[in-house]
Amino acid sequence: xxxxxxxxxxxxxxxxxxxxxxxxxxxxxxxxxxxxxxxxxxxxxxxxxxxxxxxxxxxxxxxxxxxxxxxxxxxxxxxxxxxxxxxxxxxxxxxxxxxxxxxxxxxxxxxxxxxxxxxxxxxxxxxxxxxxxxxxxxxxxxxxxxxxxxxxxxxxxxxxxxxxxxxxxxxxxxxxxxxxxxxxxxxxxxxxxxxxxxxxxxxxxxxxxxxxxxxxxxxxx
Length: 221
Prior knowledge:
Layout: H1 9-19, E1 62-69, E2 76-83, E3 98-99, E4 102-103, H2 109-113, E5 119-122, E6 135-143, H3 145-161, E7 164-165, H4 172-182, H5 195-205
Antiparallel strand pairs: 1-2, 1-6, 2-3, 4-5, 5-7
Protein backbone atom coordinates (compact mmCIF):
# COMPACT_ATOMS: atom_id res chain seq x y z
CA UNK A 1 0.00 0.00 0.00
CA UNK A 2 2.33 2.72 -1.10
CA UNK A 3 1.78 4.34 -4.50
CA UNK A 4 -0.75 6.39 -6.50
CA UNK A 5 -1.93 9.93 -6.11
CA UNK A 6 -4.18 10.25 -3.09
CA UNK A 7 -7.12 7.92 -3.82
CA UNK A 8 -10.10 9.02 -1.79
CA UNK A 9 -11.71 6.86 0.87
CA UNK A 10 -14.69 6.51 -1.46
CA UNK A 11 -12.49 5.16 -4.25
CA UNK A 12 -10.88 2.73 -1.82
CA UNK A 13 -14.25 1.40 -0.66
CA UNK A 14 -15.46 1.09 -4.26
CA UNK A 15 -12.35 -0.83 -5.27
CA UNK A 16 -12.82 -3.18 -2.33
CA UNK A 17 -16.41 -3.82 -3.35
CA UNK A 18 -15.55 -4.46 -6.99
CA UNK A 19 -12.86 -6.99 -6.11
CA UNK A 20 -14.22 -8.82 -3.09
CA UNK A 21 -15.76 -11.52 -5.31
CA UNK A 22 -12.22 -12.70 -6.13
CA UNK A 23 -11.89 -14.02 -2.58
CA UNK A 24 -13.53 -17.21 -3.78
CA UNK A 25 -10.88 -17.80 -6.43
CA UNK A 26 -7.77 -16.68 -4.55
CA UNK A 27 -7.26 -17.79 -0.95
CA UNK A 28 -4.74 -15.96 1.26
CA UNK A 29 -1.51 -17.67 2.28
CA UNK A 30 -2.53 -18.04 5.91
CA UNK A 31 -0.43 -19.64 8.62
CA UNK A 32 -1.83 -23.01 9.57
CA UNK A 33 -2.70 -23.90 13.14
CA UNK A 34 0.29 -26.24 13.16
CA UNK A 35 2.61 -23.34 12.32
CA UNK A 36 1.68 -21.12 15.26
CA UNK A 37 4.05 -20.55 18.14
CA UNK A 38 1.15 -20.45 20.58
CA UNK A 39 2.08 -17.77 23.12
CA UNK A 40 -0.04 -18.19 26.23
CA UNK A 41 -2.35 -15.48 27.48
CA UNK A 42 -1.89 -14.00 30.95
CA UNK A 43 -2.35 -10.75 32.81
CA UNK A 44 0.98 -8.87 32.38
CA UNK A 45 1.24 -6.43 29.49
CA UNK A 46 3.63 -7.21 26.68
CA UNK A 47 6.93 -5.48 27.63
CA UNK A 48 6.87 -3.57 24.36
CA UNK A 49 3.47 -1.94 24.85
CA UNK A 50 5.26 1.45 24.83
CA UNK A 51 7.96 0.90 22.20
CA UNK A 52 8.81 4.60 21.99
CA UNK A 53 10.19 4.49 25.54
CA UNK A 54 13.17 2.09 25.48
CA UNK A 55 14.60 0.72 28.73
CA UNK A 56 18.20 -0.32 29.36
CA UNK A 57 16.89 -3.63 30.68
CA UNK A 58 15.76 -4.38 27.11
CA UNK A 59 19.17 -3.93 25.51
CA UNK A 60 20.27 -6.86 23.42
CA UNK A 61 16.82 -8.43 23.37
CA UNK A 62 15.32 -9.77 20.17
CA UNK A 63 12.18 -8.16 18.80
CA UNK A 64 9.58 -7.99 16.09
CA UNK A 65 8.15 -4.50 15.58
CA UNK A 66 4.98 -4.10 13.54
CA UNK A 67 4.94 -0.70 11.83
CA UNK A 68 2.91 1.54 9.57
CA UNK A 69 4.12 4.51 7.59
CA UNK A 70 2.75 7.42 5.62
CA UNK A 71 2.69 7.40 1.80
CA UNK A 72 1.07 9.29 -1.07
CA UNK A 73 -1.77 6.79 -0.86
CA UNK A 74 -3.27 5.33 2.33
CA UNK A 75 0.09 4.15 3.65
CA UNK A 76 1.86 0.85 4.18
CA UNK A 77 2.08 -1.80 6.92
CA UNK A 78 5.26 -3.84 7.43
CA UNK A 79 7.54 -5.17 10.16
CA UNK A 80 11.10 -4.80 11.36
CA UNK A 81 12.87 -7.57 13.27
CA UNK A 82 16.25 -8.11 14.88
CA UNK A 83 18.01 -7.29 18.14
CA UNK A 84 17.89 -4.11 20.20
CA UNK A 85 21.11 -2.15 20.60
CA UNK A 86 23.00 -1.33 23.80
CA UNK A 87 20.54 1.49 24.54
CA UNK A 88 17.51 -0.77 24.22
CA UNK A 89 16.57 0.79 20.86
CA UNK A 90 15.99 -0.56 17.36
CA UNK A 91 18.63 1.80 16.01
CA UNK A 92 19.51 2.04 12.33
CA UNK A 93 17.38 -0.38 10.34
CA UNK A 94 18.95 -2.36 7.51
CA UNK A 95 17.18 -3.79 4.47
CA UNK A 96 17.41 -7.38 5.70
CA UNK A 97 15.48 -6.44 8.85
CA UNK A 98 12.44 -5.21 6.92
CA UNK A 99 9.67 -7.51 5.72
CA UNK A 100 6.25 -6.81 4.26
CA UNK A 101 4.13 -7.30 1.18
CA UNK A 102 3.84 -4.67 -1.55
CA UNK A 103 3.52 -4.47 -5.34
CA UNK A 104 6.74 -5.12 -7.24
CA UNK A 105 8.59 -2.26 -8.88
CA UNK A 106 8.86 1.43 -8.18
CA UNK A 107 5.97 2.89 -10.18
CA UNK A 108 2.23 3.12 -9.54
CA UNK A 109 1.12 0.79 -12.35
CA UNK A 110 1.03 -2.49 -10.44
CA UNK A 111 -0.33 -0.74 -7.35
CA UNK A 112 -3.28 0.51 -9.40
CA UNK A 113 -3.87 -2.84 -11.12
CA UNK A 114 -3.71 -4.59 -7.75
CA UNK A 115 -7.03 -3.03 -6.78
CA UNK A 116 -8.66 -5.19 -9.47
CA UNK A 117 -6.52 -8.31 -9.92
CA UNK A 118 -3.58 -9.84 -8.00
CA UNK A 119 -0.22 -8.47 -9.15
CA UNK A 120 3.42 -9.55 -8.63
CA UNK A 121 4.70 -8.69 -5.17
CA UNK A 122 7.93 -8.03 -3.32
CA UNK A 123 8.52 -8.75 0.37
CA UNK A 124 11.52 -6.63 1.30
CA UNK A 125 11.66 -2.91 2.10
CA UNK A 126 9.68 -0.39 0.06
CA UNK A 127 10.38 3.33 -0.27
CA UNK A 128 10.33 4.99 3.16
CA UNK A 129 10.33 1.81 5.28
CA UNK A 130 13.76 2.55 6.76
CA UNK A 131 13.14 6.25 7.47
CA UNK A 132 11.76 7.05 10.90
CA UNK A 133 10.15 10.33 9.84
CA UNK A 134 7.55 8.43 7.80
CA UNK A 135 6.47 6.04 10.57
CA UNK A 136 2.85 6.60 11.62
CA UNK A 137 2.50 3.82 14.23
CA UNK A 138 4.41 0.91 15.74
CA UNK A 139 3.98 -2.02 18.11
CA UNK A 140 6.97 -3.98 19.40
CA UNK A 141 7.05 -7.50 20.83
CA UNK A 142 10.17 -8.68 22.69
CA UNK A 143 11.38 -12.26 22.27
CA UNK A 144 14.06 -14.52 23.66
CA UNK A 145 16.60 -16.04 21.28
CA UNK A 146 14.76 -19.33 20.72
CA UNK A 147 11.47 -17.57 20.01
CA UNK A 148 13.14 -15.12 17.65
CA UNK A 149 14.87 -17.84 15.66
CA UNK A 150 11.52 -19.51 14.99
CA UNK A 151 9.75 -16.27 14.09
CA UNK A 152 12.65 -15.11 11.91
CA UNK A 153 12.63 -18.41 10.01
CA UNK A 154 8.87 -18.08 9.45
CA UNK A 155 9.23 -14.49 8.20
CA UNK A 156 11.96 -15.52 5.76
CA UNK A 157 9.83 -18.39 4.49
CA UNK A 158 6.90 -16.03 3.90
CA UNK A 159 9.22 -13.69 2.04
CA UNK A 160 10.25 -16.52 -0.28
CA UNK A 161 6.73 -17.77 -0.95
CA UNK A 162 4.59 -14.62 -1.08
CA UNK A 163 4.42 -13.74 -4.76
CA UNK A 164 1.18 -11.80 -5.27
CA UNK A 165 -0.35 -8.62 -3.82
CA UNK A 166 -3.98 -7.56 -3.92
CA UNK A 167 -5.45 -4.51 -2.21
CA UNK A 168 -8.32 -6.51 -0.67
CA UNK A 169 -7.47 -10.21 -0.60
CA UNK A 170 -3.75 -10.25 0.15
CA UNK A 171 -2.60 -6.83 1.26
CA UNK A 172 0.15 -5.63 3.60
CA UNK A 173 -2.13 -5.72 6.65
CA UNK A 174 -3.00 -9.36 6.08
CA UNK A 175 0.65 -10.28 5.55
CA UNK A 176 1.91 -8.87 8.85
CA UNK A 177 -1.23 -10.16 10.56
CA UNK A 178 -0.25 -13.69 9.52
CA UNK A 179 3.13 -13.20 11.17
CA UNK A 180 1.40 -11.95 14.32
CA UNK A 181 -0.91 -14.98 14.26
CA UNK A 182 2.07 -17.31 13.93
CA UNK A 183 3.53 -15.67 17.04
CA UNK A 184 0.35 -16.50 18.94
CA UNK A 185 -0.90 -12.92 18.91
CA UNK A 186 -4.43 -11.93 17.94
CA UNK A 187 -4.49 -10.19 14.57
CA UNK A 188 -7.33 -7.76 13.74
CA UNK A 189 -10.08 -9.36 11.68
CA UNK A 190 -10.46 -6.30 9.49
CA UNK A 191 -7.53 -6.16 7.07
CA UNK A 192 -9.01 -3.14 5.25
CA UNK A 193 -8.19 -0.69 8.03
CA UNK A 194 -5.78 2.12 7.24
CA UNK A 195 -2.27 0.93 8.21
CA UNK A 196 -1.91 3.14 11.31
CA UNK A 197 -5.34 2.01 12.50
CA UNK A 198 -4.40 -1.62 11.88
CA UNK A 199 -1.32 -1.33 14.11
CA UNK A 200 -3.41 0.35 16.82
CA UNK A 201 -5.93 -2.49 16.62
CA UNK A 202 -3.12 -5.05 16.81
CA UNK A 203 -1.69 -3.36 19.90
CA UNK A 204 -5.08 -3.13 21.58
CA UNK A 205 -5.93 -6.77 20.86
CA UNK A 206 -2.69 -7.93 22.48
CA UNK A 207 -2.16 -5.38 25.24
CA UNK A 208 -2.59 -8.03 27.91
CA UNK A 209 -0.75 -10.98 26.39
CA UNK A 210 2.58 -12.38 27.54
CA UNK A 211 5.14 -14.29 25.50
CA UNK A 212 5.11 -17.80 26.95
CA UNK A 213 5.90 -20.19 24.06
CA UNK A 214 4.21 -23.56 23.86
CA UNK A 215 6.06 -25.29 21.05
CA UNK A 216 4.92 -28.60 19.60
CA UNK A 217 6.47 -31.07 17.21
CA UNK A 218 4.15 -29.70 14.49
CA UNK A 219 5.15 -26.02 14.83
CA UNK A 220 8.36 -26.01 12.79
CA UNK A 221 8.26 -23.30 10.11
